[in-house]
UniProtKB/TrEMBL annotation:
Organism: Pedobacter chitinilyticus
Domain TonB-dependent receptor-like beta-barrel intervals: 329-756
SUPFAM superfamilies: Carboxypeptidase regulatory domain-like, Porins
Stretches assigned to the TonB-dependent receptor plug domain: 119-223
Membrane topology: Multi-pass membrane protein
Main subcellular location of this protein, as a coarse class: membrane
Any Gene Ontology CC annotation: cell outer membrane
Molecular function GO labels: siderophore uptake transmembrane transporter activity
InterPro entries recorded: Beta-barrel_TonB, Beta-barrel_TonB_sf, CarboxyPept-like_regulatory, Plug_dom, Plug_dom_sf, TonB-dep_rcpt-like
Segments forming a coiled coil: none
Protein name as annotated: TonB-dependent receptor
Signal peptide: 1-20
Transmembrane segments: none
Length: 798
């Protein structure tokens, strides 16, 4: 009877216990009792995260009754987990043990910011990437992060894709792989198509918006992406990923790893293939890649070798379509030649060594080599043979053998080749004499050697001077670039205030074949030196609230086309940016919010104005003053145990104070029109960018509604209302289900329906002006994106 009474009482109390709110709190220390500040604290599977404060204390409040697993991680220490059945407030203390070997995260720590730093950033874990990785290019996996706009030439995210952050394109976004530059040394863009399915070998990514901290490679004007590839996994594993989707899209990925062997060695490998016909006609992609890594873990050091490669064959869809075509044939592709393709292979070799010299001093060094080669092939009609160094074809009378005519134009097929080598070394030295003080010295020296050559491989009419060669090389020039940088930074924690200073010196040397004047070409040299200081303050209002402010200076050299399409008298200046960031962060037990304001003030920003050089080539020009100002929001709320809401929003304004547009008459020498503008919008800079995700999970199943809104974008810098990309609002639905089967750790199904409301929209485009015999006009072109489409994935983990 007594037991029955207790059972009845418990049953009556269950609803009240379920509604009750409790907290989990505790302290994180190391073996000698010293508090660990900034340790990452997670409630596994719940989406709740926190960090220990200066006294090592953490807390999760307002938790419903139930079972929880608390996981604590800290760089250089073994991760710990504890389970608790929460029916009252619980206190869980953790004593972390220092690892007997160095953590892989140390490799990228020199180019990253830590929690509560005075800069704006977003961290994406391996789990975050796995949710969205179904073979689309890496920019599409970043689409739900603040201020990001992505686009695809083929329309569906496979093939050539683009990314803009705060309106800045890929040439202004610094990308590093394990601290090693990925940006092309000459164009300064990052072409993720050369490394298909890279995300399957990525452990984590940190996105810093604005100038950010000092890093290696091209200047970060819009943002920087710091990507860390596969890190240590202690247990052996194997994984198969297969995706099928619209437009005959296939992805097949197999990966495996040994886990830690004899507590010292690990080996991991991945092999991938992606094929798609594309949404746009003939915009097909055939992509292959592999990734292999091996590591040695000593008590005080790590030695790791990465070898990875990617090949791509992509049918060109670079031209977009006219406005009229948007209504009649959205999938239209102007290119009809069978082999109008881009073909490229890129091989990467990376060797890293990290050593704990003392408990306070950690050194990193890396050597790298990248070999890239390939061409794009295209059919060209009615080309002037003299432009290809081909003599006119003399037509002779078959009887008299006397000249009766001359052919100076011909249809032809050409290949534009690039063969390059990129190699060098990076290093960093981190010294922490006391827990609240850290010094870092880092930098890199990299060299690029690029051979550019072009060939005619077929011509309807041609005169090869009797050589009869099927390969007529009409252009051959080399380029060389060296990039040296060194930076030093200090971070000092003074009670609740963190003081940060970062100073970088960068020296760039570029040798290229280009114009001396209107008639003469020669190998030329340019050297640029930059000083990039950065300062920041961060203040912890309490354990969960933080405010910060920073100012950072960035300088960026012109790209290859800016050099080769200008001459010694018209060469543009380098660009400069002063970036001011300020913000507020709060991280509660069930929600976190980051609000960030920014002002990016440019000097001599390079834009297209239509101005030509002395031989008729269009060059970008410096505009003295321009700016971007805005406010960013990044938030996540775990509304109830199984239902979460994530959202981002950016409100911004981007302006060019004054510039002149030039339009030249292509039939009357020297004739042109000029238009003066003031306070115009910077092209491709929407005033509003927002994303949203509602996610619900029940046992092993999940459903998410994913939304993206991008405001109107100008196609040029004139602010003309008739030359814009219309705003678009896109919604996707993702369904997931996971289960375990005998012999299989996890079977995962992921069904993604993109653009569920079948919206017709364009995420990219362009415009231009023309003048012929005094007649002036303008034109526009657009890149249509896919209507409703799907991707279905099956993931098997062993």
């Amino acid at each position: 009877m007594k037991n029955l009474k207790f059972a009845v009482l418990a049953a009556l109390l269950c609803p009240f216990l379920a509604m009750a709110q409790f907290k989990i709190s505790g302290k994180v220390t190391e073996g000698d009792g010293k508090a660990l500040s900034g340790a990452s604290v997670k409630l596994k599977g719940k989406g709740f995260t926190a960090a220990s404060n200066a006294n090592g204390v953490y807390e999760f409040a307002n938790l419903p009754a139930g079972s929880y697993t608390v996981a604590i991680s800290y760089v250089g220490f073994a991760t710990q987990e504890k389970k608790v059945n929460l029916t009252a407030n619980a206190e869980l203390d953790f004593v972390l043990q220092q690892l007997s070997f160095v953590a892989d995260e140390v490799v990228v720590s020199a180019t990253r910011v830590s929690k509560n730093a005075a800069f704006t950033y977003k961290n994406l874990s391996k789990a975050d990437l796995e949710k969205t990785n179904q073979g689309q290019d890496l920019p599409y996996l970043l689409n739900q992060t603040p201020s990001v706009v992505v686009t695809s030439d083929a329309g569906a995210g496979i093939g050539y894709t683009g990314i803009r952050i705060r309106g800045s394109d890929a040439t202004r976004i610094n990308v590093t792989l394990n601290g090693i530059p990925l940006n092309d040394a000459e164009s300064q863009g990052s072409f993720f198509i050369n490394l298909p399915d890279l995300a399957s070998s990525v452990d984590n990514i940190q996105i810093q918006r604005g100038v950010g901290t000092s890093t290696n490679g091209a200047g970060a004007f819009g943002a920087s992406l710091n990507i860390q590839t596969t890190t240590r996994r202690d247990s052996a594993y194997a994984e198969l990923n297969n995706t099928y989707g619209s437009y005959q899209t296939w992805r097949n990925t197999v990966s495996a790893g040994t886990g830690l062997i004899n507590n010292k060695f690990s080996f991991d490998a991945r092999l991938s293939r992606i094929k798609s016909d594309g949404y746009v006609d003939r915009a097909s992609s055939n992509l292959k890649s592999f990734f292999v890594t091996g590591a040695y873990y000593g008590k005080n050091d790590i030695l790791r070798l990465n070898v990875f490669s990617g090949t791509e064959k992509t049918y060109q869809a670079w031209n977009g379509i006219s406005e009229e075509m948007l209504e009649t044939d959205r999938k239209h592709n102007d290119f009809t030649y069978d082999n109008q393709t881009d073909n490229y292979q890129q091989d990467h070799y990376q060797l890293f060594y990290t050593r704990n010299i003392t408990k306070q001093l950690v050194a990193n060094a890396a050597l790298h080599y990248t070999y890239g080669r390939g061409y794009y092939e295209e059919f060209k009609t009615a080309q002037d043979l003299k432009e290809y160094s081909i003599n006119p074809v003399i037509i002779k009378d078959p009887v008299s053998n006397l000249p009766i005519g001359t052919i100076e134009k011909s249809d032809l097929v050409r290949r534009l080749w690039l063969d390059n080598n990129f190699y060098g070394g990076t290093y960093s030295l981190s010294y922490t004499p006391q827990s609240n003080l850290n010094f870092t010295l880092g930098g890199a020296y990299n060299r690029y050697e690029g051979n550019h050559f072009d060939e005619v491989i077929w011509a309807q009419y041609a005169n090869y001077d009797g050589s009869g060669s099927i390969r007529h090389r009409y252009n051959d020039n080399d380029a060389f670039k060296s990039d040296f940088n060194i930076f030093g930074r200090v971070s000092y924690q003074l009670d609740k205030l963190n003081i940060y200073a970062d100073l970088q010196y960068r020296n760039v040397f570029y040798s290229f074949y280009g114009k001396v004047d209107a008639k003469n070409f020669a190998q030329q040299n340019a050297r640029l030196e930059f000083f990039n200081p950065k300062f920041g303050l961060s203040y912890n209002l309490d354990d969960k609230n933080n405010v910060y402010a920073s100012v950072a200076v960035g300088n960026k050299e012109p790209n290859r086309r800016d050099f080769t399409d200008s001459n010694t008298g018209t060469r543009p200046k380098h660009e400069s940016l002063t970036d001011i960031e300020f913000g507020y962060r709060t991280q509660q037990s069930n929600f976190n919010i980051g609000a960030n304001g920014f002002a990016m003030l440019y000097k001599n920003q390079l834009i297209n104005t239509g101005k030509l050089n002395e031989v008729g080539g269009q060059t970008r020009q410096n505009v003295p003053d321009s700016y971007r100002i805005g406010l960013e929001l990044d938030a996540r709320w775990q509304i109830v145990k199984n239902f979460s809401w994530s959202a981002t929003a950016t409100l911004s304004q981007s302006r060019i104070k004054n510039f002149t547009e030039y339009v030249y008459d292509d039939t009357i020498d020297g004739a042109l029109l000029t238009f003066d503008y003031s306070n115009t919008n910077i092209a491709y800079s929407p005033k509003i960018v927002a994303s949203n995700e509602f996610a619900y999970t029940y046992k092993n199943a999940g459903i998410a509604l994913i939304s993206k809104y991008v405001g109107e974008q100008n196609l040029d810098n004139t602010s003309a209302s008739d030359r814009v990309l219309d705003a678009f609002f896109i919604n996707d639905v993702r369904l997931t289900y996971n289960l375990a089967l005998p012999g299989v750790k996890n079977v995962g199904l992921n069904f993604l329906v993109n653009n569920i409301f079948n919206v017709k929209y364009e995420a990219n485009g362009g415009s231009g002006a023309y003048l012929s015999n005094g007649d002036f006009g303008r034109y526009k072109y657009f890149y249509p994106q896919a209507t409703r489409n799907f991707l279905l994935s099956l993931n098997l983990k062993f």
